[in-house]
Amino acid sequence: MSTPIEAARAAFEAMGIDLPPSKGGFEARSPIDGSALHRFEQTSTRDIETIVRLATAAHREWRCAPAPVRGELVRRFGLMLREHKEALGRLVSIETGKILSEGLGEVQEMIDMADFAVGQSRQLHGLTIASERPGHSMRETWQPLGTVLIISAFNFPVAVWAWNACLAIVCGNSIIWKPSEKAMMSAFAVQSLMERAIGEFEAAPKGLAALVNGDAPIGARLVDDPRIALVSATGSSEMGRKVGAAVSARFGRSLLELGGNNAAIVAPSADLDLAVRAILFAAVGTAGQRCTTLRRLIVHESIYDEVIGRLVDLYARLPIGNPLEPSTLVGPLVDRDAYERMRAALTDVAAARGHIHGGERIHLGHEAAFYVRPALVEMPAASGPMTRETFAPILYAVRYSELSEAIAIQNDSAHGLSSSIFSTDVRDAEYFLSAIGSDCGIANVNIGTSGAEIGGAFGGEKATGGGRESGSDAWRGYMRRQTATINYSHALPLAQGVTFDL
């Protein structure tokens, strides 16, 4: 098999994209073996000013294009993604360490999002509202918002961008993308494809979509810029607190997709064959580095031993290794920092008298690569390390006796992203989905916490940020609402019966 750098270069060649000269302070590395892939320069202050100025001008022009015309650009971009799915998916896996089927799945998610946005471009509908005044009508419409800044994370380096970018573009906005420093090659490839689509589309103005390379101060500079109407940021809750405060201070708008300490409840009536399979993928997929990763397992005391026994057996047999190998199910952690955070969390587990299955580092001949066996941790109570999100494959398990207790344990988290229950009892499911059930933005029945489809709005509550992206009516977040009242009579009645006559 070729080395990661050889495979990355082959992917760029297959897409017909030329990488810029390898220089600068940001080094793209592959978690597969820790090798350097490419070096990127940080975008200069002067270039950032030019990018924002061009994006502002592009929005003013693009908002005048009919929405279906804007959708045509996204349709053409989606066709390019279809053509290059294999190469781009492989590049994502090389740069993030996720297994190849997940890398390809991420590109498929982009394709699906493009299709959704194209359809949405003909459905940016408002409302007709009854007026209390004779000879008057009211309507609500949605107008393009402005320039949208997209800050994306390493774990889904291209799909989350597509959630935002495809909708923002059909809604008449320009976009600026600041990707994670850990996934700049994937971002460069996608930006190159988007620029190709824009270059082939006469209606698209210069500056409609831009890419900025940089660290946190560069992101902060963009977040503070009053010309940026919406900041859509994906990352940690700590990052979100800073972004949200900075944007609100200038009366801007933010869309935050942050952490998630996600939980699943396994009820006595659960189909255990189905539940265990779903739990396994939710807990160890992407090496536990998803915001929707299952991190807390709450199992009824009557079936606890059987469920844990099955999972311990499966954890011990997980094929861990090079994510490009077809048989691999768990690839590496993204870097040393991720590994150190996992080790620190497991040290806290030992101090809290938790029982750890797995969690050890696996040496595959690359000292700069960090492969681990996912950890299943049996906790004496739902406290301590279990209450904190660690972005690593650690699944904490506790017992419960009553469903109300299980839901209380689940909701006792600073985050509120994803949740699920495994039960064949309709009463359990309806209780879980009721107002006194799960307090998360995503609540699933008989499936895991991860793997959301693009058709539904994605996002969560509390420290998860409250943002919604992707499907349903998430498009409204990229537009401004306008209420209009039209008087088509010759009289001038005032609302609420107010009179004002000289």
From TrEMBL:
- Keywords annotated in UniProt: NAD, Oxidoreductase
Annotated ranges, domain Aldehyde dehydrogenase: 26-483
Which catalytic residues are annotated?
Answer: E257
Q: Output the SUPFAM superfamilies linked to this UniProt entry.
A: ALDH-like (SSF53720)
Instruction: Identify the Gene3D superfamilies for this entry.
Output: Aldehyde Dehydrogenase, Chain A, domain 1, Aldehyde Dehydrogenase, Chain A, domain 2
Molecular function GO terms recorded? aldehyde dehydrogenase (NAD+) activity
Under Enzyme Commission nomenclature, its number is 1.2.1.3
Quaternary structure and interacting proteins, as annotated: Homotetramer.
Q: Which family does it belong to?
A: Belongs to the aldehyde dehydrogenase family.
Name of this chain's protein: aldehyde dehydrogenase (NAD(+))
Q: Which gene encodes it?
A: alh
